From TrEMBL:
Keyword Transferase annotated: yes
Protein name listed in UniProt: Methyltransferase type 11
InterPro entries: Malonyl-ACP_OMT, Methyltransf_11, SAM-dependent_MTases_sf
The keyword Protein biosynthesis belongs to this UniProt entry's keyword annotation: no
Xref: SUPFAM superfamilies: S-adenosyl-L-methionine-dependent methyltransferases
This protein's UniProt keywords: Methyltransferase, Transferase
Pfam families per UniProt: Methyltransf_11 (PF08241)
One Gene Ontology biological process: methylation
Record domain Methyltransferase type: where: 43-135
Species assigned in the record: Desulfovibrio ferrophilus
Gene3D superfamilies per UniProt: Vaccinia Virus protein VP39
GO molecular function terms noted in the UniProt entry: S-adenosylmethionine-dependent methyltransferase activity
């Protein structure tokens, strides 16, 4: 699954920035959770096209920055500057950093892809030094609920199975020394039609799921008609993205 995720996002490297309007807005809100200040060592998981990096730069500084992304094609060299900054191809679930080595940990729209969040998320947080800050956001259950319901009913397509908010909040509650706040926000987007909506997802690379189904014109037509009828909006059709924000510090 991880290899597929990397492949899908790498293929979307040239279209991601223009298509990722939800991710861009989410990144801006996540960046706002990082306190103004200087962080000697900053780490970003899922650096992608630099959407979050650019936003955090407006009010935070660092001496060293390491941006990780599992998809080589998503890493944009222009997102970093200076000898103290680097981008590397690496899985956030196997981040190449020691415990207590970072002063800031940030991540946006990435950790929903974790295979073992109960293990990996605490490991990520343990990279923080005492007093280190973190600001994370990820998509949770309820994201693309319209797509999931229509796919289930028509047999066309599938949606990534995402954990519920409670899983992540319980993980952080159980992690010793972590002070954390959280909130959940729904972002609703409108698209001209079902085809435009699916194309937008494709351009962001967020199309890798464990439940892919064989394409057929009949199933597609059933999907299109049902989606456009059931989830019609003033300007076409709607889609909902549910985002969990987690922010705080290691005591």
């Amino acid at each position: 699954m991880k290899k597929q995720v990397a492949t899908h996002f790498s293929r979307a490297g040239s279209t991601y920035a223009a298509a990722a309007d939800v991710q861009r807005e989410v990144a801006a809100h996540c960046a706002g959770l990082v306190p103004v200040g200087h962080y000697p060592v900053a780490v970003e998981i899922g650096a992608g096209g630099g959407l979050l990096t650019q936003q955090v730069r407006s009010h935070a500084t660092w001496e060293r920055y390491l941006g990780l992304d599992i998809a080589r094609g998503m890493l944009v060299p222009s997102a970093v500057s200076g000898p103290g900054e680097a981008l590397i191809v690496a899985d956030g679930e196997a981040a190449p950093l020691r415990e207590e080595s970072a002063d800031l940990l940030i991540s946006a729209s990435t950790m929903q892809w974790y295979a073992s969040p109960r293990i990996s998320l605490p490991a990520n947080l343990r990279m923080l030094k005492p007093g280190g800050r973190f600001a994370l956001c990820l998509f949770v259950r309820g994201t693309l609920a319209e797509l999931e319901a229509t796919s289930t009913e028509t047999g066309f397509g599938s949606v990534l199975e995402m954990p519920d908010t409670d899983l992540y909040t319980s993980i952080l509650d159980a992690e010793k020394g972590i002070e954390c706040s959280h909130r959940v926000t729904d972002y609703v987007r409108e698209y001209p039609d079902a085809r435009s909506f699916l194309r937008q997802l494709q351009f962001t690379g967020a199309t890798c799921t464990a439940g892919k189904r064989a394409f057929s014109r009949q199933r597609w037509e059933s999907f299109r008609q049902l989606y456009e009828c059931r989830y019609a909006s003033g300007c076409g059709v709607r889609a909902t993205y549910r985002v969990l924000f987690l922010w705080g510090r290691r005591a």
